Amino acid sequence: MKILIVNAGSSSLKFKLFEMPNEDVLASGEIERLNMPGSKVKIKYGDGEVYKEEQDKIDYEQSAGIMLNRLKDLNVIEHLGDIKAVAHRVVAGANVFDKVAEINDQTLKQIVDLGEIAPIHNPSEAKYIDIVASILPDVKQYAVFDSAFFHDVPEMNGQYGIPHELTEKFGIQRYGEHGINHTYITQEAMKMLGTDKADLVTLHLGSGSSIAAERDGKCYDTSMGYTPMNGLLMGTRAGDVDPALVPFLMKRMGASADEIIEMFNERSGMLGVSGISSDMRDLEESDDSRAKLALDMFLTRVIKYAASYITELDGVDAIVFSGGIGEHDEWVRSEVCKKLRWFGIKLDEEKNHAQQPGDMSAPDSKVKVFLIPADEEIAMVRDVFKYQN
């Protein structure tokens, strides 16, 4: 049974086609730098074959068409009808969804309505669902929710210090994001530790970034909040800001609340600070002082959250790096571990430079340092196949 997993992020589209139940990956691809110059397509398929393509400013609709059509063009499948199910990563399920859901008119409407919580994610994910449905009208589609992992967050970490009646009335709480990957890397880290009783800090660092604290496999705290805008400085998202800035900027700019939130989501973060790019690679190659400032701000916030979570957990057994930046940026890993050395964390710099997944700890490190590549797709396909059977 062929199941296509669609993982649409704020700046990239990842996908994998699985043959289940064997979990064989027939093809995997990524279209990165969406809506930016130099959008890149890369698809791995067959016996180590790689297809590459580059266009300027591939948008969401074009990327969905490329994803489906290239699978057929490259003879990964004979017909689009060979795909029997499609599963989408959906960021915000709030307290409406705590597990996989089959897409129908009602669930799609709920996903769209929850766009208020994830305005740069849920609407585009719903659009992908619509696009795929128009091309594969007879194929069942499913949603796997990032927020499901955070249902276990204790109330003291999940609630805000606002009047309790508003928390109850409007369901306002910390919903988090990247839960599918935090779940996956937590499970993998505990396998590497040989126990299911471990305290961890997991760092999903990419264009969208979040840090989570886990106790015995369950989320204890997370940097993202009611929306994915909270927490770390990100590619285009501001992260933590004083809420009083919203009315202040509305008055000074003559803007609406929605316009200010759009700015915080799409024109802030490393892009807004640097004025150059939202991509870490571009900033590291730049000599501009604002690019350096953006990097320093990103790094400082990662360190602040990681250190606070280690303290909150009374120490940890391991920290885990994942996500595009976490997996590929040795400088970030090195700097974070240097600042966390007071907790007994020590990175093996040779292993860090080699960037091989696995244990990157120095022999005398009191805390394990793991590099575990994100694999949200395998976590998703397992959930969907289990749901179907």
UniProtKB/TrEMBL annotation:
Protein name: Acetate kinase
Taxonomy, superkingdom: Bacteria
Encoding gene per record: ackA
Amino-acid positions noted as binding substrate in the UniProt annotation, renumbered to this chain: 89
Matches recorded under PROSITE patterns: ACETATE_KINASE_1 (PS01075), ACETATE_KINASE_2 (PS01076)
Catalytic activity: acetate + ATP = acetyl phosphate + ADP
Subcellular location: Cytoplasm
Binding-site list for ATP: 14, 204-208, 279-281, 324-328
